[in-house]
Each structure stands twice: as C-alpha cells, then as structure tokens.
Amino acid sequence: MRKSKYNQEFKDSAIKLCMDSDKSISSIAKDLGLNKGTLNLWVSDYKKINNIKSSKDLNKESLEEENKRLKKELAVLKQEKEILKKAAAYFAKETL
Fold this sequence. Notes:
Helices cover 79% and strands 0% of the residues. With 96 residues, the protein is an all-alpha fold.
C-alpha cells in the first residue's frame, strides 16, 4: 500500500472546502495543487462514508421539505386567523 503524501488534516480541509464552496472541484484542486481526480475521489469517498447526497439532491430535498413545512404553517395560521375572527366578533357583540 502506497503512503499518501497528504495528511488527513489536509484531506479533511480540502473536502470541507469542496463541500462548502460554490467553486468546482477542478478549480479547488488547481488552487491546492492537486490532481482533480484525487480530490474528486476524496470527496466521493467522504460522501459515501457519511451517506451524503449530491448538492443538487440536497437542494431539491431541502426545497421540498421547506415547502411541506410552509404549507403546514400556513394551515395553522389560517386556523388561528379564523379563531381570532370569531373571538373578535364575539367580543364586539358583548360590548354593544
């Protein structure tokens, strides 16, 4: 087995940079002086180990989750609005 010339801390930093950045793996690899295939392998291994989906899948999933959450919140707010309308009408009758 070949000993890597990059320590784990460097690999972790490079992977984090790829995960957090909008830049392509190719441009990050070039900036770090790495082969893009090497960096791509590190990132894909990291995603497999940590069961992380691609950013496109995450974005789509997060939008769907947010949409579902907002629909639930809207339903609750509509109910609260109806309750407040009824309460306002009740108290308006009482004060007259």
